[in-house]
Amino acid sequence: MATAVCGWCGTSTHVTEFSQGVESTNDSPDSPQFQSAFRCDACGGLLIGGFTGAEEPGGFNSYGVTDITYMRSFWSRNKPTVWSPRFVKGQSFTDVPRHIAKAASESYKSASIGNHMSAILMARTVIEASAKEKGILKGSLLNKIDELAGKSLIREDTKEAAHAIREFGNDMAHGDISNPVSEEDSEEVLVLMSEILNELFQGPARVQAIKAKVAARKANP
């Protein structure tokens, strides 16, 4: 029985195959695919699982592209490596202005489906939007970040984190996309983005909430 992260409920669970596998082709006739339909055992959602010829040593061409009998035999001995739909996972950012929280969550959603350049570019947008939310409206993003630190809204190491996101995002913003972006790159950028949102919005909100509780306890001993 195969397992997958369900694209509908996000659960890592067993999936049950209920159709006979079929051969299909993508843009390259030398890269055949073999696909079958599955049902998520957790929510009942339907998934398509498959693999490509490139995943078999030597490719399917070494056995004959049209050898569907061999492909079905391979299928019975292996597990699907490609699943559709993929689960899109965002993040919740409490105490962050709604429009910024939505953009930050969108950055995580992009990363969850492998769109790492989009994730980094959106993280850069989140940093600039956050500076504007704090009343820093003029100048380049570099200047906005420096001003956040100059006003003691972020610490020095947080300023460096923001600049790291800016520099990563600049490549995408200015069309310099020849260098590949890895999953690790986007993960690191999103961690830094979350830390900046925490320092600018979430941390201060928690402090104010605690102060309010202390004041209420003093008023009602």
Sum up the structure in keywords.
single chain, 221 residues, alpha+beta, Four Helix Bundle (Hemerythrin (Met), subunit A), six-stranded antiparallel beta sheet, 49% helix, flat
Protein architecture, described:
There is one protein chain. The chain has helices spanning 68-77, 98-112, 116-133, 141-150, 156-173, 183-219; strands at residues 2-5, 12-17, 22-25, 32-40, 46-52, 82-84. With 221 residues, the protein is α+β, with helices and mostly antiparallel strands. It folds into two domains: 2-84, no CATH class; 98-206, Nucleotidyltransferases  domain 2 (Four Helix Bundle (Hemerythrin (Met), subunit A), Up-down Bundle), CATH 1.20.120.330. Strands 1, 2, 3, 4, 5 and 6 form a six-stranded antiparallel beta sheet that branches. Helix 3 packs parallel to helix 6 (183-219) and helix 4 (141-150) runs antiparallel to helix 5. The longest helix has 37 residues, at 183-219.
| Termini gap | 61 Å
Annotated CATH architecture of the largest domain: Up-down Bundle
Helices, by number, come to: 6
Number of individual domains: 2
Shape: flat
How would you name the CATH homologous superfamily of the largest domain? Nucleotidyltransferases  domain 2
Average pLDDT metric = 82
Per DSSP, what share of the residues sits in E-state strands of 2 or more residues? 5-15%
User: How would you sum up the major sheet?
Assistant: 6 strands, antiparallel
Radius of gyration: 24 Å
Specify the structural class. Answer: alpha+beta
The CATH C-level class name of the largest domain: Mainly Alpha
Helix fraction, binned, reads 40-55%
Question: What is the CATH third-level topology name of the largest domain?
Answer: Four Helix Bundle (Hemerythrin (Met), subunit A)
Helix-strand string: EEEEEHEHHHHH
Number of strands: 6
Uncertain stretches of 5 or more adjacent residues: 54-66
